[in-house]
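Escalated from tier 1: pyridoxal-5'-phosphate holo job.
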Amino acid sequence: MVPERVRRLEPYKTETSKARVKLSSNELPFSIPEPLRERIKEEVSKIPIERYPDPQAKDLKEVVADFFGVSEENLILGNGSDELIYYLSSIFGDGGIYIPVPTFPIYSLSAEALGKRKVEVLLDEEFDVDLEASLKAVKNEGCTLAYYSYPNNPTGNLFSRDRIRKIREIGTVTVIDEAYYSFSGETFLEEALSREDTFVLRSLSKIGMAGLRIGVLIGREEVVKEIDKVRLPFNVTYPSRAIARVMLTEGREFIEDSVRKVVRERERLKKEMESMEEVEVFPSYANFILFRTPHPAKLVHSKLLERGVLVRDVSYMPKLERCLRVSVGTPEENDEFLEALCGVLRELS
Ligand SMILES: *Cc1c(COP(=O)(O)O)cnc(C)c1O
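Tier 2 regenerated the structure:
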């Protein structure tokens, strides 16, 4: 009874191996200061959990709009950006969904789950969008929707804006997934606010709130209003709203300070890794770094884990042979990772 396209899917898994140093999911490594934690407790204890929340989540929308510098009318909140990706694929994906790969797996999963055709085109040697191949594929297949992870997870780079725009000219609705915006500072926000064919996705997951599941879609009011009709009414829960409100207002300084520290550590980590003979390090505008060693990634991954450090093995993805992705942690965690990586490389060569 279950259709083939669903049976074919693999369950979404993240690694749950216990490790002293967890650098596998691009989370913010700093834990919340005690006073902020106390304020969250206070707010959560006031929630009328026997009641349905306001379906528009106006209380949280106000705060999110202010945090990202847009108007409430331009926003839709999702249960993570993942949910918003499902909405976008279901509404705009009928002609086929263009996905430059390797990238974040949820674009492709949404296409498969919703029975839309996905058109995956390999990135070029610089991990940039392959313009010629993409134009051809998008035209030939009649794609109506395109996803760009900007910066791209797991490669870490920013695609050329011109190439994204040229593909958009064919007539694809263009989604710029800026989950890592805080670490890159690069955005298509202006275009999302001025053009009906362009949307920006933001998320609270990478700035200290992965557990709350809150994603943000930004676009022009008249289109956002239409998309909002398919949204499940109570998709962001009371507790998440209450906690996010405290975090984005009273915790704003903590978040901004943490982001600055992560960016600083990213640059240090990158330099240190580049000084290791056998490590090829790729440029990153996010809170993680992609790197390649001469050894099988699976082996490096398990040897790092033996030393207490969990990273993500991304070598199963196209073009990423022998590649791993490490999230930027606290200075201490990064030191542990560097030492473990040195040890593993010495052991293997
Ligand atoms: C982590 C990540 C997200 C965040 O998804 P949420 O559902 O908001 O947690 C979105 N896009 C990309 C490319 C990511 O790496």
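The chain is about 40% helix and 15% strand.
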